[in-house]
Specification:
about 90 residues, mainly alpha, two-stranded antiparallel sheet, globular
């Protein structure tokens, strides 16, 4: 699990898969494209995205990406890269 602080919450726990979904959203992929990339159903992706929105308090993809950058979950164009945990720290 990846842990981080969120809006109004002292502890947000995201699974490795949820962080992976956030990274793919950051690449600009649609839920259908994410499903194809991960070889899972679109409905499963829809559920992951919905769960991440709920956990982070995000209302849309832009807000989610802002949250993810603010909390060091994604790195864009070299920004926030030093905050990303080592890949072994993402595993549970």
């Amino acid at each position: 699990m990846v842990n981080g602080d969120g809006h109004g919450s002292s502890n947000i726990s995201l699974s490795t898969r949820e962080v992976e979904i956030i990274e793919l959203v950051a690449e600009g992929l649609t839920n259908q494209e994410i499903a194809e990339r991960l070889t899972i159903s679109k409905r499963t992706v829809d559920n992951h995205v919905s769960n991440v929105f709920t956990k982070t308090g995000s209302k849309n993809r832009v807000a989610l990406l802002n949250w993810a950058m603010d909390h060091g979950k994604i790195c864009r164009d070299g920004f926030n890269c030093c905050l990303l945990p080592e890949s072994s720290a993402d595993e549970s």
